C-alpha cells in the first residue's frame, strides 16, 4: 500500500472511531487527493481547533474558494460543529477528516 492509502485508512478510522461517521471511501479519497502534498507534512496535515487564524484559513480557502460557498455565519457554525463532532479534546484533527465532514455537511460532494 502507498503512503497515501495508509493515510486514507487512518482518516477513515478517525471518522469511524472519533466522529461516529461511516465514511464514503470514494469521497474521502477525493478529498485527500485534493489536499495534495500537505497531507505528508505534520503541521499542514492537521487543523488546530483552537487557533482562530487556522479556522479562518479553513473557512476562506476551503469553504469559500474550493466549495464555492458564500461567507456567512453558517460557515462558522459548521466549522464549530465539525470541531465538536471530532472532539475538542482531540489534539490532532486531520485536515482531510475536517474537510470531509464539512463537505458532507454542506452536501458538496459534487465539487469532487
Give the SSE map:
Blueprint: H1 3-19, H2 25-34, E1 46-47, H3 52-66, H4 73-86, E2 93-94, H5 95-105
Antiparallel strand pairs: 1-2
Report what the structure shows.
With 112 residues, the chain is mainly alpha-helical. The protein has a single domain, classed as Orthogonal Bundle (Recoverin, domain 1), CATH 1.10.238. Helix content is 60%, strand content 4%. It has a two-stranded antiparallel sheet. The radius of gyration is 13 Å and the shape is globular. It starts with a helix and ends in a 7-residue tail after the last helix.
How many individual domains? 1
Number of helices: 5
Strand order of the largest sheet: 1-2
Low-confidence segments? none
Q: Which CATH C-level class is it?
A: Mainly Alpha
Main beta sheet: strand number and arrangement? 2 strands, antiparallel
N-end to C-end Cα span? 23 Å
CATH architecture: Orthogonal Bundle
Cα-based radius of gyration, to the nearest Å? 13 Å
Class per helix and strand makeup: mainly alpha
Shape estimate: globular
Any idea of the CATH topology?
Recoverin, domain 1
Pfam family, one: DUF2853
Organism: Winogradskyella flava
Protein name: DUF2853 family protein
Write a brief caption for the model.
With 112 residues, this protein is mainly alpha-helical. It has helices spanning 3-19, 25-34, 52-66, 73-86, 95-105, and strands at 46-47, 93-94.
